[in-house]
Amino acid sequence: MQYDVIIIGAGAAGLMCAAIAGQRGRSVLVLDHANKAGKKILMSGGGRCNFTNYYVEPDRYLCHNTHFCKSALSRYTQWDFIGLVEKHGIPYHEKQLGELFCDNKASDILEMLLSECDQAGAKVQLNTSVDAIHSLETESGGYKLNTTQGEYTCESLVVASGGLSIPTLGASGFGYQVAEQFNLKTYKTRAGLVPFTITNQLKDVCIALSGSSCEVIMECNGQSFRGNMLFTHRGLSGPAVLQISSYWQAGQPLTINLLPDIDLAQVLRETQHERPKLSLKKFIAQWLTQKMSEQLVELFLSDLVKTTDVFKAEQPQTLAELNAEQMDAIAHQFNAWQLVPSGTEGYRTAEVTLGGIDTDEVSSKTMMSKNQQGLYFIGEVLDVTGHLGGFNFQWAWASGWAAAQYV
Ligand code: FAD
């Protein structure tokens, strides 16, 4: 069968591209090896799909070429996608920080995309794996695909097969193999927006505090995020943790401010003067839960005893017992806790894949390979990764839309 456009991957980017290309009058076939389209859309945003963000800016994306995403994001904006959502009468709300979620369920977004594809005559074919891609050596170019459902040819081939995160949702390294076949450079991939694991001596604290959370500022490699941090049985999770994980490299320390609105050294001095008999644990429990205060005070004091001369073996019970140096040391632990995660949960639970196809290989206007006529890459398979908050879907919509103008 011959089509103008074949898109591999019926996810966020692929379906958007299919609908828009179909509206342009192109004959479009979307192939996916999964038994259902848009599985990640259905799982996203806790089942409510955080489909975009009011504040989409290029600096919310990680990419080796920081300029690459600007063009597509400015031509298909969050307002365009919100317009589409409203046209379909899908109720939505802003949760926080501009993050837009469906009021009801994520399937509203998937059904909207499938209905747009349907109306535009774009065909979505599931349970189809692509075994081989051949570039046609004819004057007009094009591609021939051998698939488990037969042979197809097309003028334009769009790779929208996503990244490696969550293999159980259909993720595969297919896009990177296509890049290799056509000699396109890729950056090494790693899991992003992913919880940290802790297997060292901090593990017991994580287990004891599992389910507890607090608002923190997390810093690593010059980036910082403010938000919730959640202790889990296996380590750390929560929005601030997922955000910083995309900037973290194995072995690096994180700096965590557990009391981001408090200059603890100063407040400690003031309180020592006013309430000298107050215990350190009760003092900290003004801002953190009793359980967190107890666990963290014990952890920090035992660390300070082991690693510095500031504390002797016995630990202070009241604020009156603390000297200036000790107050500074405790304050530093709470305001700038240095923690080295053991690793991350990896692709099993990661929301995104960092790295991927080098954007220098692709036109930022058309998403077409600069060296391979008619071969396009869109969505997460490219080396473009958004922050948490609806930015990854906005990239999928924008890059899918951009390619759809030219396929
Ligand atoms: P995908 O949506 O992953 O689609 C790729 C498609 O290609 C899939 O259907 C897959 O089956 C298919 N495919 C893969 N390999 C092959 C192959 N070999 N042959 C044929 N087909 C293949 N982002 C947000 O902005 N907001 C959120 O709320 C949000 N929540 C998320 C929650 C979870 C649990 C996860 C995992 C991710 C979440 N993301 C969220 C990220 C977002 O889902 C992705 O960035 C986005 O889906 C990428 O779109 P894509 O079209 O490039 O890839």
From TrEMBL:
The keyword Flavoprotein applies. Its cofactor is FAD. Coiled coil: none annotated. It comes from the Bacteria. Keywords: FAD, Flavoprotein. The keyword Magnesium does not apply. Residues 190-352 form the RsdA/BaiN/AoA(So)-like insert domain. InterPro entries: BaiN-like, BaiN-like_dom_sf, FAD/NAD-bd_sf, RsdA/BaiN/AoA(So)-like_dom, RsdA/BaiN/AoA(So)_Rossmann. Residues 4-405 form the RsdA/BaiN/AoA(So)-like Rossmann fold-like domain. NCBIfam families: aminoacetone oxidase family FAD-binding enzyme. PANTHER family: OS12G0638800 PROTEIN. This is Pyridine nucleotide-disulphide oxidoreductase, class I. It comes from Oleispira antarctica RB-8.
